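seq/struct pair 1
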Amino acid sequence: MTIRKQIEKGIIWSFGQTIFVKIFTLATQLVLAWILIPADFGTISIVYSITNIGAIAQQFGIIDVLINRYKSFQLWNGLARSMILVVAIATFIVINILGIAAKLIYDDATLTILVFLISISIFLRSLTALPSANCRALLKFKEISLIQIVESFTRSVSIIIFALSGFGVFSFAYGHIISAIVFYLLFWKISGLRHEFNFYLRRWKYLFSNSMFNWFFAICQRFIDQGDYLILGLFVSKNKTGLYYMAFTLSMQVIGLIANSLPQILFPSLSSIQNSIKEQSIILEKSIKLLSFIGIPFAIWQGCISASLINNFLSDDWQSTVYLVQILSFAMAFKTISWLWPVTFKAQMKYKKLATISGYFLLIFVVIVTSATYFYNEKGTAFGITLFYSIVSPLALHFGLSDYHINQFPLFLLIGKIFITVVVLFWGIYFLLSLIVDSSSLSFLYIYTIISITTYMLISSVLFKKEYLFLKHTLLKLFKVSVIK
C-alpha cells in the first residue's frame, strides 16, 4: 500500500473516530450544563489547566522520536520503557506539586484534591507511550481510532453518571480515572508488546536530546492551549471563568472535528518518507489547502449559529457565552491556518528549531492575553486569543514550510482569499437573515446553515475551482475507499 493510500485510510478512520468523540464531548457538555452550575465548570477549567500543564512532563517527546526512528525500534525498546516509567513518576509528582500551589494561589482546597485524582489518570496514560508509538509507527490507524472511541464513550458516560449521582465537580475526575484504566488496558493489548517496565538507562543521551527539545515545545504549546483559563482565573470569578470555558469548548467543537486528527495521520506518514522532501511537500501543501478550504468556513459558521445553539440547548445561565463564542470563532479560523505547523518540523526531526519558535510564541501569548484579560476580563481574554492567533498563525506556517519545496506566496494568497470570502459571505448572510428570522431561534440554525454552506460551495466552485474540485475528488475517493473497507 502506497503512503498516500495509507494516509487516506488513516483519514477515514480518524475522521470517523473524531466524529464520535466530538459527539460524545458535545453531548456531555450540554447534559452537564443542565446538571452542574457555571462555578463547577470554572473550577474544573482551572484544574484541567493545571493538570494539562503539569502533564507536559509526560510529553517528553519519546513517542515522536521513536516514530522517527522506528526502523531501530527494538534497539530503543528497553531504554524507552525505562524513560517512560521515570517520566510517568515525575509527571505525577509535578502535577501534585502544582495542585498544592493552586490551593495557595486560588485559596481553594478542592483544587488540590481534584488535581490529585486526575493525576492518577494521567499516570496511567503516561505508561501507554510505548504501545502508542508502536501503533502509530506501524500506521495502525484503525486500532488507534477504535480505542479512542471506546475511551471517549467510557469517559462521557462515567462523568454523566457521577454527576447525576450528586458528585458535582468531582464527576469529571472519577470519569477520567475510569476511562484511563480502559485506555491503558486496550493500548497494551492491541500493540502486542510485552507488558513490563524495567530500568535500563544505557545510551539514554541518544533519545534525550531530541526528546528535550520536543518536551520544551510541548510545554510552550500546552501553556498556549491552557494558559487563558489560568490567567483569567486570576482576575475574575470562577463563574465567569466557567462561562469562558464553555464558550471556548463550544468554539472548538466543529473545527476540532475537522483538524484534530490530521496531524496524527500526517506525522507518522511523513516520517516514513523522510528522504523524499518533494513527496512530503506535495502532501503538506494539499493538506493545508484542504484544511483551510474546509476549516475556515466551519469556524466562522460556528460563531454565526452560536446564539441559536446556546439559546435552544443550554439554560439561561449560559446565554452570555454567545458573544464569547462569536469572538473565538475568528480565533479558531486563524488557528486552522497553522494547525499543521508542528508536523512540518517533526517530520524532518528539526526539534530544536520547533522548540525555539514555540518559545517566542509563548512570550507573545503571555503578553497579549494577560494584558487583554487584565483590562477587559473574559471578553478581553477572547479578544486576546483572537489577536494572538491572527499574528502567530501566518508566522508559524511560514516558518514551518521554509524547508520544503512549496511556493508560499500563492499559498498564502489563496488562504487570504478564502478567509475574506468566508467572513464577508457568512456574516453577510447572518445579518440579512436575522432581519427576517430571530437569530436565537432553532429555525434560524437550520435555514442559515443550508443557505451559507450552499452559497459557499457555489461561490467556491468559481473562485477556488482547483480546491473545490480537489475536495470533491478527495471526498469521493475517501467514500469509495470507506465502502470497500
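seq/struct pair 2
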Amino acid sequence: MGDFLELIDGYFEYGMTSGEWRGDELVTDILNEGKITEIGDSLEDVVFSFIASGKSVLREELVVPFARESWKTFALKLERQSDMIRGVLIEMTSAGGNNLEERHHIQKMAALGELTTGVVHDLRNQLACIGGSAELIKILCSDNGQIMKYTNGISRTLDNSNSLIEQLLDFSHKESDSKQIFNLANILDDVTSLFGRTSNRYIEIVTSLDKQEHRIVGNPSLISSAILNLCTNARDAMDGSHGKIEVSLARETVTEIPNDLLKQENCAGKYSILRVKDTGCGMTADIKKEIFKPFFTTKEKGSGTGMGMPQVLETISYHGGSMTIKSEIGVGTEFALYLPAS
C-alpha cells in the first residue's frame, strides 16, 4: 500500500508550557534558516502569532529561501491541541523548481474565497425575500392544490439553495468551525440522490445503508462536499463508459485501522464507515501518493482544480476521523471514511 505520510513533507510540535520544539529534519533546517517568508517572519514568529491569536486552526503559505537550494513553497497547517501546537508542511513547489504558477493559483483561490463570502451573503438575502413571498402565497392560496404544489416546490428549491450557500461559505473557510450532531445517513441519501440525477445514465449507482442510526458530530456541509467529491472522482474514473459506483454506510466497532492515511492514534472505538467504490481505471502506487497534494490532478487542464481530494482529507481530519484507500489498475478504487460515532 505504501506509506501515505509521504504526502506530508514536514511535521513538528511545539509545547506552549515547555517551550520545546520537536520536528523532523526538514523543520530543523527551516528553523535554522531564520527568516522564511517574503515579509521576513521565521517559523517561530508564525507559531507565536498563531498562539497569540487564540485561533484553533491556521493555514498559511510559507516561502523558504534555503541557503544551499532554490526557494521552496510550503502549505502550512497549524492546530492547537491542549497545550501543544502541531504543524504539518506540504511542499507545493513544482518539480522544476518554478513555483510561480502554484503561488498565483493560491492567491486566486484566496481571492475567490473572499469574493464567495460577499456574494453568498447577498444571495442569501435575496433568497429570503423569495421564501417570504412563497409563504405568503401559501397562506393566500391554501385552498388551491395546484398552486400549493408549485409553491412547495419553490420552498424545497430554496432549502437546497441555502444548503449550497453553506457549502460555499465552508469552502471560503469563514464558517467551517460550526459543529452539530446530525445523521450521516440523511446526508448520504441527499447527496447520492442529487448525484444520481446528474450522472451518466450508463453508470449504475448502488447505495447500501445498514439500519442503524449514524449520528456524528461535525459539519454536514463539509461532509456533503467530501462525499460528492468522492462520487465525482469515481464517475470520472470511468471516463463516460459503463460502470458501477457502490456507496455504503455501516456502523462498526474497530480496534485498529490499517493503512490509515491520517495515522490517528488511539483509533479504537465505534465508527460510521462510509465507503465509495468504483469499477474505474484504478490508480498506480505513484498516483495514490500524489492525489492528496494541493493542485495535483490527472484530469485535463480546465477539468479539475486538484483541490477535491485535499478537501476530503482535510474534512475527515477536521472530524477526528480516519481514511483508507484501495486501488488496482483496471479493477477500480475504494475509499473508506471512518467517522467517530456520537
